[in-house]
Design goal:
The protein is α+β, with helices and mostly antiparallel strands. The chain has helices at residues 5-25, 44-60, 91-95, 167-177, 190-198, 212-224, 238-241, 249-260, and strands spanning 33-37, 40-43, 65-68, 73-74, 81-89, 102-109, 112-120, 125-130, 135-137, 140-141, 154-157, 183-185, 204-207, 228-231, 244-247. It is built from eight helices and 15 strands. The strands form three sheets. It has an eight-stranded mixed sheet with strand order 4-3-5-6-7-8-9-10, sandwiched between helices. A five-stranded mixed sheet has the order 12-11-13-15-14, with helices on both faces.
């Protein structure tokens, strides 16, 4: 797909950051790691990736705002447009040498995410979408899964770690969902979970305790691939509420009924 100038900037920037991260991933044992919080670590590579992305995006669009996971918050001259960036989604995987992590870049316009890019450098898979233009992975058009029977469906989620307070809720979710479906996966990178729903690899995904940068790019990619996406709490603001649920059209209602019950 020939995307807009903004989308091309996003893809080029994601590839640049991804190449640098891939080099560090090859030397993961030598990375300097500092604790950011219980069960949540940030590496030198993570901070450098955000710096690379911020500089590239601000050079291309100097009036846009910027929100990044590693603390970068820039109020732009244009208050209607803002980049939302996770330079390394799946940091724990990265630090353990697990090849499942990604660079995520979204563009927000007047409070709505209008473009998103999720790049997996290890597999060289670039997921991207613009509002109204469909969703793509590399050169292939994306469509959500067409499965219609819960027992045939695979779902993804994140499992709370380090004593997070939402652990009991997630255990309850699993107790309700697992007997009804073909399985649940926990791969540790919310951006890629959303991208995989868009690609039809999962039928649905839900998670609590997320930040805007974890899900912003994935929201537009899932929607443009034909999926349904809502805040986990009906009526909440999806980017600030921290909870998301999505699925293909046939499975959204039965899936949401199980997860939202009680």
């Amino acid at each position: 797909m020939a995307g807009s100038a903004n989308l091309n900037v996003m893809m080029k920037t994601a590839r640049k950051a991804g190449r640098a991260l891939l080099k560090d991933f090859g030397e993961v044992e030598q990375l300097q790691v500092s604790a950011k919080g219980p069960g949540d670590f940030v590496s030198r590579a993570d901070r450098e990736a955000e710096k690379t992305i911020r500089e590239a995006l601000m050079e291309a669009r100097p009036t846009y705002g910027f929100l990044g996971e590693e603390g970068s918050l820039i109020e732009g001259e244009d208050p209607t447009r803002r980049w939302i960036v996770d330079p390394l989604d799946g940091t724990t995987n990265f630090l353990h040498g697990l090849p499942h992590w990604a660079v995520s870049i979204a563009l927000e316009h007047k409070g709505q995410v209008v473009a998103g890019v999720i790049y997996d450098p290890v597999k060289d898979e670039m997921f991207y979408a613009e509002k109204g233009e469909g969703a793509w992975m590399n050169e292939s058009r994306l469509r959500v899964s067409g499965r219609r029977r819960m027992i045939e469906c695979i779902f993804a989620t994140g499992l709370p770690f380090g004593g997070r307070p939402d652990l009991p809720e997630t255990i309850t979710d699993l107790a309700r969902l697992l007997p009804a479906c073909a399985g649940v996966r926990r791969w540790g990178a919310a951006a890629l979970d959303l991208a995989y729903v868009a690609a039809g690899r999962y039928e649905g995904f839900w998670e609590r305790g997320l930040h805007a940068w974890d899900m912003a790019a994935g929201l537009v990619i899932v929607r443009e691939a034909g999926g349904f996406v809502e805040p986990l709490v009906p009526g909440a603001d999806i980017l600030s509420s921290g909870g998301v649920i999505c699925a293909n059209e046939p499975m959204f209602e039965p899936f949401a009924k199980i997860i939202r019950r009680g």
